[in-house]
Amino acid sequence: MKLYTKCSTCMTDISLWTWYSDRIDFKKSNKDFINLTCKKCKQTDRYNIDNVKAKESNTAQIIALSIFLIGTPVLLIFLWDYIFKINNIYAILILILPLIVPSLIYSIIIKNDRQRVRLFNVS
Question: Which residues contact 66 (CB under 8 A, 6 or more apart)?
Fold first, then answer.
């Protein structure tokens, strides 16, 4: 998870990456303060963990969107011939149902990312 805080001198975002999914575990490993260095002004300072916030990951959004934008047309291409060869409406519905899978994966990835961010920021 990517975490952010503001530099005390130049007010730019300082980012750090961690495996911890909530603030409590992060605090247990680092006590109450963490030493961070600003990439812009090169100032090293101690920051309170309570001032560190999580933001939604752009990487997760890009992965989810690419799965949706690539997965849906690929499935549609594979199922296109079968959909029009079948005369039974229920069989067609069964063949169309796999087209929902990329959108479900997209929504699950986005939901989990939002939930992790909310859990970290609330705790």
Answer: none
Residues 11 and 45 in one domain: yes
Domain holding 48, by residue range, is 2-53
82 and 30 housed in the same domain: no
Residue ranges with strand state E in the chain: 2-6, 13-17, 33-37, 44-48, 53-54
If you average pLDDT over every residue of the chain, what do you get? Answer: 85
The CA-based angle 10-43-117, given to 5 degrees, is 70
Tell whether 80 and 110 lie within a shared domain: yes
The residues pairing with 48 across neighbouring beta strands, listed in sequence order, are 33
pLDDT of amino acid 111: 92
Question: Do residues 79 and 98 touch, judged by C-beta distance below 8 A?
Answer: yes
pLDDT for 10-22, tens place per residue?
Answer: 888 888 888 887 8
pLDDT at 108: 92
